[in-house]
């Protein structure tokens, strides 16, 4: 697969040319380190390691794709030759799968010869972006829902089955209990759940013209009551009725009539689902209505474009809500993705960075490490991002953990824990953080100094460029302030 951007091929090809060499070697052969982070989510479990492994283990580029490189109008023959028999010999470090990381913290890095290492960028971004985005949303919904049941109902919004299985996987690790996705349930061995759809009731409209008699009243049954009775008869082991096909209040009335029409139907009626309207208000009304008619211990399940704020509001207004089905806002209408980035931080042993005109797009220099302080009670105290070769002290910490650890070296790699173990690890960490929303995480003094000094040197005006170039007066004021290089 050519899982690269055109610029990876262009830079890779150029780096093999003699004219682009550094002092001591071709740029292509010079050792470089790139770190990986995400910058758009306040926090997220780091997930996607198995996706990264698959892409690193399958680096083959077939002959038709090699021809695409060779015949490119820009001439990419050197890069094509480099990837023809590719065997990536670099090293990768990463945090443990499921580790909760904060925006801007490096959670992986890769070191190797520049020409091929820079071409691994998309593999890292594809590996981690969807998993971290999905797990972060799932974890936030879990925190909003408390201990209430959470189901992944996103299959129809995911575009294809492989993406849907991934979403189900990372939603489960992030805190969900089950999924409606049968393929995901098969692969992941977690429960598959699902209620009826609205069109079950719609399919019984013939009973508007040829109604059945309701024995208890002698009046004709509404077609929705007939549909509910048939559904309960078809699912005697227990099921949930969907109430808002016509109107939630009418749905509750017809569900109660159906469920109280026989002992078997009553035993089958375990819960109800509301999918539209004011979910908290309607859910409460239905629960009270059912209880007033002797239908107790029902599970109210609420769905309908729910996001974190929607779940939080319902929990406040309707604490008896037993569970939520989350679909569209889990994967289809996501307000914020992880935005995983891959940035060079070391070249030929020298720290480097992108200073940028936008401060939040500036990057970090040097071989990095994330230090996590742990108190005597086992709870996390604070994080510090620093340099690998420094010893960091964190106030209040009885010990300091180094989160970045060897993950891949020359084709040998760590095993990936099962999704059940990753889920348990996420839950364990949530108990150890005093507060995720204001947990302290900063740069070490040494890393901050290196970043600031290197940025100043990059901006230093010592090239004498004004001797050969002119700046029109109207542009002069827009030039950045510079200082002589020291």
Description:
This protein has 486 residues and is an alpha/beta fold. Helix content is 38%, strand content 18%. Among the domains are: 235 residues, Alpha-Beta Barrel (nicotinate phosphoribosyltransferase), CATH 3.20.140; 102 residues, no CATH class. The protein has a seven-stranded antiparallel beta sheet. Strands 7-6-11-10-9-8 form a six-stranded parallel beta sheet. The chain is elongated. 40% of the residues are buried. The mean pLDDT is 91.
Give a short summary of the structure.
The protein contains 19 helices and 19 strands. The protein has 486 residues and is α/β, with parallel strands linked by helices.
